[in-house]
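Q: I have 66 residues here and want to know how they pack in 3D. Can you give me a structure?
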Amino acid sequence: MSFQEALETLSRDERFKATVYAMNTLLLQKGVYAPEEFEQMFKEWAEKERARTDATNRPHLPAPTI
């Protein structure tokens, strides 16, 4: 399968996933970062994203009346 065929075969979401996979694989293989560093950054992003989502999903309290 050529690169062009792969582009035409995959959905937009699948192309994004393939891009992330290819980039991370290359960076790991070339020693740009270690698997442990990737896992740490992944974990940090997940924690920030969860905190952000939790904050936006909290019920809004009414403004205090004076």
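Q: Anything worth noting?
A: The radius of gyration is 20 Å. The helical segments are 3-9, 12-29, 35-57.
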